[in-house]
Amino acid sequence: MTPESQIVWLLAVPLLPLVAWALQVSFGRFLPRQGDWLPTGAMGLSAVIAVWMFIGVLSGHDAGTGTLVSAELANPHTWKFFFSDPALTEGLAGFQAGILYDPLAAALLAMVAVVSFLVHLFSVGYMQGDSRYNIFFANLPLFTFAMLAMLLSDNLLFFFIFWEVMGLCSYLLIGHLSQDKEKPRTEAAWASFKAFMTTRIGDVCLFIGMMMVYDKFGTLSFHGLYAAVADYTANGTHWEGWLTAAGIMMFLGAVGKSAQFPLHVWLPDAMEGPTPVSAMIHAATMVAAGVYLTGRLFLLFSPEAQLVVACIGAFTAIFAATIGITQFDIKKVLAYSTISQLGYMICAIGVGGVAAGLFHVITHAIFKACLFLGSGSVIYGCHHEQDMRKMGGLRKKMPITYLTMLASTLAISGVPFFAGFYSKDAILAKALEKSMVTGDWYWAAPFWLLLAAAAITAFYMFRLIFMTFHGKPRDHGSEHAHESPWTMTVPLIVLGTLAIFGGKFWLTDPMHAISGGDEPWFFQIVDDPTHAEFATIDLHDGHTEAAHDSHELAGHDDHDIAHTAHVRAMFMSIAAAGSGILLACLFYLWGILSAASIANRLGGFYRLVLDKYRFDELYNATVIRGTTVLSGFLCWVDENVIDAFVLNLAKLHRGGASLSGVFDKYVVDGMVTWVGETTVAAGQTLRRLQTGRIQQYVYFTLAGALALAAVSLLGIF
Amino acid sequence: MPLSAYLVVSVALFVIGLAMVAARRNLIYVLMGLELILNAANLNFVAFNRENPGDLDGQIAAIFVIILAAAEAAIALAIVLNLNSRIQSIRPDDADTMKD
Q1: What DSSP line would sit under A571-611, residue for residue?
Q2: Would the pTM count as exceeding 0.90?
Q3: For A597-612, how does the pLDDT look when each residue is reduced to its tens digit (9 = 90+)?
Q4: What are the chain B neighbours of A702 within 8 Å (beta carbons)?
Q5: Which residue of chain A is at minimal alpha-carbon distance from B25?
Q6: ipTM greater than 0.85
Q7: Is it true that domain B3-99 has CATH number 1.10.3210.10?
């Protein structure tokens, strides 16, 4: 395939959903079936292209040596934009935008396109009868467009733009039911508002971070930044404070989008959105964008920033997992599970396992999408009941849903040979390796936290399965449950199958890798040469080897450590998963232990966890209250200082104006009216002489004549 | 006859005419007063012409005045008739619409 045709095909992947959106939003309600087939079909086409392109990437991979030999992909094309003319863009320092299609983007592009297509298909069944069906099918492809375009962006600016479009779509889709024509849900409106505002905090931080690096390096393209940072840190691996700060700021964008502590509060509430939306946006794709961003920017993170990333990820993983145990809403359990798993991925990147983290993104997207769609199928089957306490015994009534969800649960719990096992194992191995290489206690913490989180994950996921599918129906809805139509079961079957075999597909030979062979191909293609070079530096906490051979030697040691770590981590993770599953069986399947009595014994702590550690209340009391108080104060300042100033100024003006008015009235007007009035008065006086009596005039004339005669005769003058 | 005799008659005529014009309450009498005044003037013209017996300037002026008086009387009587038909009165005091 020539580079040019490759670009055209690549552009088709995001543009097909965009066209579908444009058509659907304009004519959707006039089309048959309200046009649901249009975006679904476009997404299907787009998914086929993405997978086909991905296979093209795979076929460039030589299985024998385990290296990627495709020349085209070794040098990702930069598609110059029409405004890249240097003369025109002097102010923008020759800003260029392009497509970055490296193996990482290829894998995620295929994953997102396929999951999105399956969710579109699922929505055809699930959203049937919704009052805003056509709008739903307009927002869904717009989101997919933004996500696919974001994956193909080769620079942070375009990345950020599509990132924001995704935020908007997330807002629209969470709030979908708030505009329902029959029974609008206020909670959905609040949830969408909360999600938008919370992620906004992260987005602003991301933008500040972007501006910081642009200010120093004058570029926002990923590869430009890698090169700039490499130059910057080449002599003596000195990481300056501002670079750490910029890295953390950009990471905060991912914290917001991927719902990491402390900005995790929006994701559980986002479950107010329809279930397909939760599956696609809030489990498989959008929230993974934060992980993708962290992975892309890994080379920009100083060791301190990496520690922050690892700690936030690990803490979120265990923190969200504990909340997951206590929840009863099936979607809330999955939401906290998502937060926890995202913490895994973030932590993996923090400890240097970019490939491990992104590998988990892909496997997680598959099994979490399957779990969410399965929960959607359960909710649909139980007539929109979400409380697990009212379910139970659905195993026989919804066999397809049960089996696919069980497969995904085994995958997420890390049971060997399911997809999640490989990725989770890779993350744990990376974390352990990091702690062994550095030997610092604070690098050991992430590994133990993740391991505990793995056990808890297995526990609460099996709790979900047992409460929902096993035992006896506990409510009217679950007694009359029925299996969902084919549009909903087909995506489940596809995703469930991928959850079983997906992991093996990625790692063709996991045992070989563990026993000291080559890295699996996914790790090799994602950790491209430049990546590996920097990763070595990071591994040594910022000390570069002075000479080339010592680097080789150290690399050899590292390899041994990695091998040991991998084997240990694998057994520990299997033990964690097994103990979690066993506990879940004790509590919820066999009923040997009672969850209620344990909860009673824990008392206050249990209620704290049940209330999600009261973070919503904390934020209400601090941030939201603080903002309200601040705005109250600003309002007061506005009213009493600014308004008062303006009002007094106005009063002053009015005083001046009234003075001038008095002058006008009594002096200028006075003169004019005086002239007028005098004239009138004179006329009034003189008109008495005009009696109209002719004979009187004759008398006057006579008198005048006599007077004249007298004057002339007597010689007075 | 001395000139003063003529003048005495003329003055008498003038004063009677003037009194009629000023005092009478009937426009017809007022017009008659005016005729007396004109005739007093005519008498003066003729009387003073005695000083220049060679020419007839005084007499001619008197004849002019008589013609003028005839014309004036015609017009004035027409006005009086009109006034009477308009306000049903020929008292000069009643014709005061221009007062306001």
Answers
A1: HHHHHHHHHHHHHHIIIIIS-SS-HHHHHHHHTHHHHHHHT
A2: no
A3: 777 777 777 777 777 7
A4: 18, 22
A5: A695
A6: no
A7: no
